[in-house]
Here is the input.
Amino acid sequence: MATVSSATLVGVDGHPVSVEVHASNGLPGFRVVGLPDASCRESRDRVRAAILSSGLSWPQRRVTVNLAPSGLRKAGSGLDLAMALGVLAADGQLFAGALDGSAFIGELGLDGSLRRVPGILPLAAAVGEPFIVVPPACAREACLVRHATVRTAISLKALVEVLRGGRGWPELPPPDGAFEEPRLADLAEVRGQAFGRQALEVAAAGGHHLLMVGPAGSGKTMLATRLPGLLPALSPDEALEVAKVHSAAGIELANGSLSLRPPFRSPHHSASAVSLIGGGGARIRPGEVSCAHRGVLFLDELAEFPAPVLDNLRQPLEEGRVVVCRASAAVAFPARFMLVAAMNACRCGADGSPGSCRCVESSRARYVSRISGPLLDRFDLRVRVSRPDVEDLLSPKAGGVVPTASEPSAVVAARVAAARRAATERGVRSNAELASWSLDELAPLSPGGWRLLERRLREGQLSARGLDRVRRVALTVSDLAGRKGPLSPEDVLLALALRAPGALGVEGAAGAPDRMSALGVAGR
Ligand SMILES: [Zn+2]
Here is the structure.
């Protein structure tokens, strides 16, 4: 009997697993028990082939592998290596003491090579042993775990030689020193778009969800992709949290090191519900909403996403996590992201421009109604973005005109950082996270500000939930301006403008009254 330490992945968390191997006399056979899933049961074939092709012998005995704890479902191929070593130790081909103090994680190829497995970061973090042996391709990532020394070997054969004392541990692959994170797109490259830029800044400062509506080619995508350059860097703890999710999703960490950049994910509208939310067959993996955790989820062409796919966003937007249920298990993934979406105001994308748009009013309303009221209501900021005028692009100067200079991202990011600090003093990461009950204390309104909101409420242009959202945005506006004290009418006016009634351009169009109020459209 031999016991080898390893780990398995559940959601984005690793759990330690003890691989117990028992070899007894009797009819030769190989059994794996202890709740392995289908992909894990396939390990039997890989382990047998890897041992044979490594020039080692397969025991002519009855081999039983138990994966403990038995209540935990084991998925994936990461237990291959531990099983193979357990078989060799139980058969006496390897001194069992050589395995003590180490955990082994890795998939075996039929030729005995060690192959990378997804989620090495959470897996390595889960084991308690002072040494971890992983495939070379995972070594750098495993090194992010500070509590253990990482070792590697290219194949089962090479590893057995080291464990038998025949040779020393090979060097870890060196980090790619020349690697630099790609340069972020800068706001200075966006000409004109004063209002769009302002909305982007408020969104970044307050963590507010942002919807941009406008004709094709108006620069919505260009603005959205500038967002990562405005957001504050992740803390080391957040970066590790993000890296674990990406590791579990099988995304290779650049240079095997932690990135302090907030993630920016932009799934295509043809993305399936599984790739967006998470799930999958053999192994439940995190989806795009989780890969965007602590960062930005950008949905371009929002109206082109199928409604059932968008419905799945409700849980992560409300709870900051998503629960994926399968017959075998329910797994929760973190999913606290900033939602940024862009859409055209009509099917043809010309947005009512005379001469080019052929959409009739009813078809425009139908196009917009593809976004459900509850989802629309989640956007704190809903702005129209139009194509910039020539006047926006050029500035008069002595001797002619020059391209207009735009404020660079670094300047805007400094204001955003100051606003985020103000939010931190309130005990939240950003104003969007403020609880409704705390608004009276943390975001008091001046009498003038109240009067503005009261009028909108009486006119039916603002719902109770909308009221809270406007107050949070007004607080962010005030923070960006460096103001303290009750929210002024100016703060409230800008917040209302940023949650524009009729941002979708369907004033007075057909639609149920409750839907129109959710749209923030003055339909009465
Ligand atoms: Zn049109």
Summary: Confidence is low (pLDDT under 50) at residues 506-524. The chain is about 35% helix and 15% strand. Residues 346-348, 350, 357, 359 surround zinc ion (CB under 6 Å).
